[in-house]
Amino acid sequence: MPCKHQPIATAKIMGSGIAPDIFGNIFFYDVPGGTEVYVEVWGLPLYQPANEIDQPIGPFGFHIHEYGICEITDPNDPFQSAGGHYNPTHQPHGNHAGDFPVLFSNDGYARMSFFTNKFKPGDIVGRSVIIHQNPDDYRTQPAGNSGKRIACGVIYEFC
């Protein structure tokens, strides 16, 4: 049993030119009935409230995306190569398998753990995790109005 009590999948998160200081790790554990997701991230931009022109910066939208590609082809709009939200059952936004709780930062640091029954860790290997600049509203179609993609990590098998 080489992987007992170890994560099945992991992603190393790295920021873009928009937020170059972001780094962290996400671990996906196989648990009865689904997956436990554990995330720890540093270097997130400090919170800025919305104003008449701009959306807030933070809390941060957080999703699994379709493709395991974290290329920055456009520095002003990075990680478009990751595709849309992971949505194998073709649900409206807010119910995508890849829709996660928002990340709340404390002076640039965020840590959380949560359970999802929408996938098992093996289902998402080869996909990516994206952190967005703005909070997800969980209703705007197709992606929650969560703003620019500021960090990305490809999901790999852990062991």
Give a brief description.
The chain has one helix at residues 121-124; strands at residues 9-15, 23-31, 34-42, 62-65, 110-116, 128-132, 149-157.
Describe the structure.
- The protein has one domain (9-157): Immunoglobulin-like (Sandwich), CATH 2.60.40.200.
- The mean pLDDT is 87.
- Strand 2 and strand 3 (34-42) form a beta hairpin.
- By secondary structure, the protein is mainly beta.
- The protein has one helix at residues 121-124; strands at residues 9-15, 23-31, 34-42, 62-65, 110-116, 128-132, 149-157.
- Strands 4-6-7-1-2-3-5 form a seven-stranded antiparallel β-sheet.
List keywords for this structure.
7-stranded antiparallel sheet; Immunoglobulin-like; 1 helix; mainly beta; 159 residues
Instruction: Output the structural class.
Output: mainly beta
The main pleated sheet reads as: 7 strands, antiparallel
Number of domains: 1
Amount of helix: under 10%
Helix tally equals: 1
Please identify, by name, the CATH architecture. Sandwich
Strand content: 25-35%
Shape: globular
Give the termini separation.
11 Å
CATH classification class = Mainly Beta
Secondary-structure element string: EEEEEHEE
In the predicted model, the low-confidence regions spanning at least 5 consecutive residues are none
How many DSSP E strands? 7
Q: Give the CATH superfamily.
A: Superoxide dismutase, copper/zinc binding domain
Mean pLDDT: 87
CATH level-3 fold name: Immunoglobulin-like
Q: Biggest sheet, strands in spatial order?
A: 4-6-7-1-2-3-5
Radius of gyration: 15 Å
Which helices and strands occur, and which strands form pairs?
Blueprint: E1 9-15, E2 23-31, E3 34-42, E4 62-65, E5 110-116, H1 121-124, E6 128-132, E7 149-157
Antiparallel strand pairs: 1-2, 1-7, 2-3, 3-5, 4-6, 6-7
